[in-house]
Design goal:
32% of the residues are buried. By secondary structure, this protein is α/β, with parallel strands linked by helices. The protein is built from 14 helices and 12 strands. Bound molecules: guanosine-5'-diphosphate and magnesium ion (MG).
């Protein structure tokens, strides 16, 4: 699965600079046939020292890291939900992503115009959120109308779905995002209606506070949001330097924090496959069983799954090779019910 993250925010807050910093190191796109190739889509490697160590152990010819697609979604301004600016195109772009990174300008710089003249992060966040909420309310109004008709005809599930839609509407009317709504994971009618509406504010949000390295404290209100703090301009500069140059300046790259945070936000884990041909990292949601995890490699794997040989990456490295691990009896044989852990190295038997 390819994780897809949309970068949103007001004009001139640092979205494109962040995009540039993230996409500085090109990825061999041939390894990822399902990627979208468009100018505003950047394919970003997920840095993982575990993968590099496994590749070294296996003398792999190729290393294929997990990737995230970042989409630079331009054009959100006040009124976008009514089609202002790039309006509808913008909203359609957001609907397709798995998560939203919202860049908020904290840094002061008189030379870079702030569209509302003043740096006020809380107001800026509210402007973007309002546009997303308004777009969702329009979706909800349509769905509510349909469900009311269905409910009168006693169509299956429509009454409970209507109740859920109204609860979410109340949240949005109060200026809150739909993603705080708790879904019962076994409530199928609820999940179906939410999937159908695909609300923008139902997606997980991560705030990137674009603050100068020297700005150490944030407003308490800002701290409450799930966020990371980055000096985006500095990150862009660092992305052009070698590790040695960065070390000499006594600086560190922080942009990888964003990728790690995105994994946590979406509850994702990584497992590995390793061999002489290639070592590769695969991304799956936490909680997936071995057969489901296999679908990351090929959709067939779920049905053809018989069992899998599995070992934690560190234990494999200590053994020194797959063969040695087998001899030492540290490779485990797992069946269909096994829940994959982060850092597992897997060989599927199909
Ligand atoms: N001083 C400073 N300037 C920045 C920072 N981030 C972006 N900029 C500058 O702000 C301008 C707008 O940035 P850009 O990434 O194009 O904004 P976008 O409209 O959100 O895509 C550019 O000139 C950037 O170099 C920052 O962290 N500090
Ligand atoms: Mg831009």
């Amino acid at each position: 699965m390819t994780l897809n993250i949309g970068i949103v925010g007001l004009p001139n807050v640092g979205k494109s600079t962040l995009f540039k910093a993230l996409t500085r190191n090109p990825v061999d796109i041939n390894n990822y046939p399902f990627c979208t190739v468009e100018p505003n889509v950047g394919i970003v490697k997920v840095p993982d020292a575990r993968l590099d160590a496994l590749a070294k152990m296996s003398h792999s010819k190729k290393i294929i890291p997990a990737i995230i697609e970042f989409v630079d979604i331009a054009g959100l301004v006040k009124g976008a939900s009514n089609g202002e600016g790039l309006g509808n195109k913008f909203l359609a772009n957001i609907r397709e992503v798995d998560a939203i990174v919202h860049v908020v300008r904290i840094f002061e710089n008189a030379n870079i115009i702030h569209i509302h003249e003043k740096i006020n992060p809380l107001d800026d966040i509210a402007i973007i959120n309002t546009e997303l909420i308004l777009a969702d309310l329009a979706t909800i109004a349509k769905t509510e109308l349909r469900l009311e008709k269905d409910a009168r005809k006693n169509i299956k599930d429509s009454i409970i779905q209507l109740e859920i839609v109204r609860k979410i509407k109340a949240l949005l009317d109060a200026g809150k995002l739909a993603n705080i709504f708790q879904i019962d994971p076994i409530d199928e009618p609820a999940k179906n209606i939410l999937r159908e509406m695909s609300l923008l504010t139902m997606k997980p949000f991560l705030y990137v506070y674009n603050a100068t390295n020297t700005q150490k404290t944030l407003l308490q209100e800002l701290e409450k949001n799930q966020h990371i703090k980055l000096d985006i301009k500095l990150e862009e500069e660092l992305s052009e330097m070698t590790e040695e140059e960065i070390f000499a300046l006594e600086l560190t790259r922080k942009i990888d924090d964003l990728i790690v945070a995105a994994y946590q936000l979406l509850n994702l884990i990584t497992y590995f496959t390793t061999g002489e041909d290639e070592s590769r990292a695969w991304t799956i949601p936490k909680g997936w069983t071995a057969p489901l995890a296999g679908t990351a490699i090929h959709t067939d794997f779920k049905d053809k799954f018989i069992r899998a040989e599995i070992i934690n990456w560190q234990k494999l490295l200590s053994a020194g090779s797959w063969l040695k691990a087998k001899e030492l009896g540290v490779l485990r044989l797992e069946g269909k019910e096994y829940i994959v852990s982060d850092g597992d190295v897997i060989e599927f038997k199909i």
